[in-house]
Hints:
The chain is an alpha/beta fold.
Amino acid sequence: MKRYLALPLLFLCFLFPNLAHALDMPFKQVSPGIYAFIGETGLRTYENEGMNGNAGFIVTKAGVVVVDSGSSYRVAQKIHAAIRKVTKQPVKVVINTGGQDHRWLGNDYFKRQGTKLVASAAGLDDMRTRGAEQMAMAERFLEVKYAGTMPVYPEVTFKDRYTLPIKGERIELIHTGGAHTPGDILVWLPQRRIVFAGDTVFVQRLLGVLPGSAQRWIKSLEYLRDELKPKIVVPGHGHVTDLNEALRDSYDYLVFLRDATRKRFADGAFDPVEASHGLGPSRFAHLVNHDDLDFRCRNALTVAKEIFQTLPP
C-alpha cells in the first residue's frame, strides 16, 4: 500500500523538479540561544538555491536577531521556519553582514514580518551597486525557486560601529574596512566571545578576492585576531571553527598572495600578469576549489593588480 501512495508523489517530482531538490536548512546550536546554518562549501547551484553561505540567529529575551536573510524570498522563509522550531519569539532584527546576494536578498520576506534591517553604509552602497547584476544571475539558474524575490535595502546603517538596541544580549556590529565585499562586517558577542564573521572568514573553501580588496581584508582579519580574539568563529563559508583555523584558511592565504606578488615585483616582474603567474602553493590544497586553476589565477591576478597600484612610478 505504501508503495502505491508513493507513486503520486514521485509523479509530482517529475512535473515540478524543484520539489525533488528542496533545500534543507538545519540550524545547529553553537552556544545556548545561538544557532548557525552551514551552507555547502562549493559554489551556488540550483539544488542549494544559491545559499552556499552560512547564516545564523540569536535568541534574546527581546526577540530574535537573524544574521543574514538568505539568497531569496524562499530561502528566507526556510530560515524563519527553522527559527520557529526553536522559539516563538518574533524576529526583531535582521543583520546583513555584507552585500553578497545570499547575505541580503531574503530581506523582503523579513521586512514583511515587521523586522528591522541593519547593515553597514558600505554594505548598502554595495547592494545598490551590484544588486541588479546579482539578481539577474540568480534568476537565470534558480528559475522558479527565485519567484517573489525583491531587493529590499536595510533602513538602519552605520559607518564603523553599531550596538543593537536589544536587551539581554550585547551584539556589536563592526565594519573594519571590508573583506570579500566592501561592506562586510563582524557581528560580535563580547560576553560570549563569539563572532559571526560573515565573508571576512572562509574556512575549508578557497576564498575569492573579488569584489573586495586583499589589503583591506588582511587588515580586517588582523583586527579580528588582535582586538576581538574570539573563542568561536562562525565563518561566512565553512564549518564553525576557532580563530586558528580561521586565520590559517583566510589570513595566511591572503598574506601569501600579497607577499609573493610583492617579491615578484621586487625581482623585476613587469606587470601584474607576470607577477601573478603560477602562484598556487600546496599548503592550501586542502581547500575546496583550490584545484580550480582559473579560480586561483583570478585571485593571484587581482592581488597583483592591487599591489601594482601601490608601487612607486
